[in-house]
Amino acid sequence: MISAKRRGAARLAAAVLASGLAAVGAIAVAGPAVADDATSGQGGATATLTGLRVFDQAVIHGNGEDQEVGAGLFEMTVDNGGTIQTYCIDIHNPTQQKARYQEKPWDATSLHNNPDAGKIRWILQNSYPQVNDLSALAAKAGSGALTEKTAAAGTQVAIWRFSDKADVEAVDPAAEKLADYLEKSAQGLEEPKASLTLDPPAVSGKSGERLGPITVHTNAARVAVTPAAGAPAGVKVVDKNGKPVTSAANGSRLYVDIPAGAADGSTTLTAQAATKVPVGRAFASESKSQTQILAGSSESTVSATATATWAKKGPIPALSAEKNCAKGGVDVTAANKGDEPFTFELAGKEHTVEAGKSETITVPVREDQAYKFTITGPNGFEKTFSGVLDCKTAGSGGGQDTPSSKPSPASAGGTTGGETTGGDLAETGSSSNTPMIAGIAVALVAIGGGAVFFLRKKKSGAAE
Known about the structure:
Elements: H1 4-18, E1 38-39, E2 46-62, E3 65-78, E4 83-88, E5 100-104, H2 117-125, H3 134-141, H4 148-163, E6 168-170, H5 173-185, E7 196-199, E8 202-206, E9 210-218, E10 223-227, E11 236-238, E12 247-248, E13 253-257, E14 265-275, E15 282-285, E16 292-297, E17 300-311, E18 317-324, E19 329-336, E20 342-346, E21 349-353, E22 358-364, E23 370-376, E24 382-388, H6 434-447, E25 451-455
Parallel strand pairs: 1-24, 8-17, 23-25
Antiparallel strand pairs: 2-3, 2-5, 2-6, 3-4, 4-16, 5-15, 7-9, 9-13, 10-12, 10-14, 11-13, 14-17, 15-16, 18-19, 19-22, 20-21, 23-24
């Protein structure tokens, strides 16, 4: 449950937002056509795991052994204000203390090929904490008296049966009856929409043009919009008529107005809002802490950024990257709004994007592999995407190889994990391989990002 103190913090964040968003934290881009590092698929809520807060016990059956684990609600603190509650959807992968999580679409997680993902969302909407009348919930389930702890445990057990196809049961009889009821009653629901994204996340064009459109997708009533603090003089965020924009709503189309004659360069714009993240949104960690799914949210701060790049002539690339779990890799999209072809190398192959065209290349990345893609272009342009491909549950056969620190044009990867002890973390998400997984996680940190793919521009060239 969300305390009054936390609700007050969220209201304060909303008040700051409404009064002009004095400190947005936009990423300034210094120098001509240079972009900062970015992980793929940014947008929505970013949060830090604080621990398993409301839980009881469950037993995992498998490989001739029974293992008792904590089962229930996790809590996370959202950056810049807010609190969310989540359940685990990766039972055999341990949690890491203070792991950082990013809101993700189902396609970027282990839910991408799970036909029962919609049933998990039904469980979330029809059980604790969304249903906090435990007497009514117990009456529907025919379980007998439920407490917050046993209701959370029963809900988590039902979710694991769909997310991991796990043979798991709650220790408490009432919690087990609740799990059985939820499993049998669950119906498929559609994936909830993101709390906030900007599409596309990168645009480009010539000086003197309005670059875009960039469409806002959000469930918030209003979104504050601002350019980076270090944006060049005269660069503005506007609507299609050229009117300066400081706020937007779902469906709004934004443009970055570049003055004629402006020196070649790049900047970002940031959108930020206070809203409740929709129940059923997935949360994944780049540190290989177990994937989570949202069960409840206070009013929380959500944000998204988009990059704009411009030049007077030559190739003018706009670059973005998204995890593609269906194809087992990362989609790197290069659009060219210049007047000359944009040629670069990716994974040992040369690619050319003609003027006015766009191309998406899927780079294979092995499960649990840390990756880093860097692409360079004219006038000092550079952009890097980094992250970890985490598309499978730990018990589904993925991520069993040793990680590689050597550059590779093809897939390479390994298993990473984290601690399940210390602080306020309970022992949910467990495996007989936990010590080995934790060791490999340390190794990945030491290597500083695993396999590295370099993309180099070979030829220089100088809205709606």
